[in-house]
Amino acid sequence: MDKYFIGIDIGGTTVKFGLFNTENFPETEAQFAIPTRTENEGADILPDTADAIEQLLKDHNLKEEDIAGIGVGVPGPVITDSDTGSTLVNRCVNLGWNLKNVAGELSRMTAIDPVIVMNDANAAALGELSCASGRDTHDISVAFRDMTAVLVTIGTGVGGGIVQHGQVITGVSGCAGEFGHVKIAPIHPFLKKLIREGGDVEPFEDFEYYASATGIIRMAKVGSAVLYPDSELAGCEKMGAKEVFAAAKAGDPLALEVTDFFYDTFGLGMAIVTAAIDPDILIIGGGVAGEGEPLLKRIKGAYQKYAFHGVYDTELRLATLGNNAGLIGPVVPLYLNAQN
After folding, report:
1. How far separated are the first and last CA of the chain, in Å rounded?
2. Which end of the chain, N or C, is more open, meaning fewer C-beta atoms within 10 Å of its C-beta?
3. Residue 65, Cα to own-chain centre: how many angstroms?
4. Cβ-contact 73, 119 below 8 angstroms
């Protein structure tokens, strides 16, 4: 009888589930989501998850022994306890968790083993790289092990993950890949103009302060206040990054400056990342990456403006999996182990 994996992506709003057959991974056989109940320090999240897994098994006429493992992504650092060797989630603020043994608790609740847990951005990096590497060879277990990749996600903030030879690089405290929290001083003239005109922005801040969806909105609001009061973005109540990009396509002067600043600053940040890591491939994901190939072209141009000559030709790609990256990624180690 076929064996199956279950992928789980625990987010602050929903818990997403994916069922994978070991023979046709990474194609999903079923997907669904349940609300994330974060009240009472997230006490209901794992019981709700276990109940959902029980229902999933019933719906597909499966038993616990049919499941070859569960992979879980969580929105926080994951560390290994030096005394017990257990994998521990080291604080998930938006779930209400502090130090928590998610793998151990979920395994006990479901009677399924193994359960592996990783940071959600690291999981997404694994998922994206597994599909990028297997695209040409049709065998991720071979190509995947030979590559070093970085995923950078542009959303509300900037996150990321690093994968080398099939292993996620987590660092001592589980914080490797937190690119959004690298301090950066953009050199683009738009920032200088905003500061000169008394705009409420900082000249030296976290990378995601400038180069996230939130950063795009921030720069547009400040720019409309001190430089472009007649912009179509001025006074826009529901302004998001999409509205800024749309206004730029329509030729709005403020939006053009904001997006040019974003591309330039993001390219600078990526040049820093590749100089430090020197990956085979740098994958750009997250909501802002939905702007597609025009965004990638502009980022490449800015990246090569700042890149060290040794990493000038690093391959930059857009993520392709969307929300599925967080489901596929934590299952990848289970799949690779099953191939051995």
Report:
1. 19
2. C
3. 31
4. yes
Distances (CA, A) of 42 to 38, 76, 95, 178, 245: 4, 14, 6, 24, 36
At a CB cut-off of 8 Å and minimum separation 6, what does 183 contact? Answer: 204, 205, 206, 207
Beta strands in 205-304, from DSSP E residues, in sequence order: 205-206, 281-285
Q: Are 47 and 54 in contact (CB under 8 A)?
A: no
Which of 27 and 244 is assigned the larger pLDDT?
A: 244
Is residue 110 a contact partner of residue 50, using CB atoms and an 8 Å limit?
yes
CB 13 within 8 A of CB 36: yes
Nearest to 197 by CA among 234, 219, 231, 226: 226
What is the secondary structure of 64-123 as a DSSP string? Answer: GGGEEEEEEEESS-EEE-TTT--EEEEEEGGGTEEEE-HHHHHHHHHT---EEEEEHHHH
Question: Which letter does DSSP use for residue 266 in this model?
Answer: H
Interatomic CA distance for residues 57 and 130, integer angstroms: 26
Read off the pLDDT of residues 294-315 as tens digits, 9 standing for 90 and up: 999 999 999 999 999 999 999 9
pLDDT of residue 127: 87
Q: How is residue 30 written in tokens?
A: 């079923």
Grouping H, G, I as helix, E, B as strand and the rest as coil, residue 20 is strand
CB 153 within 8 A of CB 159: yes
pLDDT of residue 144: 61
* Backbone φ, ψ for residue 7 (5° rounding): -105, 140
Instruction: Give the pLDDT band (50/70/90) at residue 181.
Output: very high
Q: Which amino acid is at 100?
A: K
Amino acid occupying residue 138: H
- C-alpha closest to that of 135 among 123, 147, 150: 147
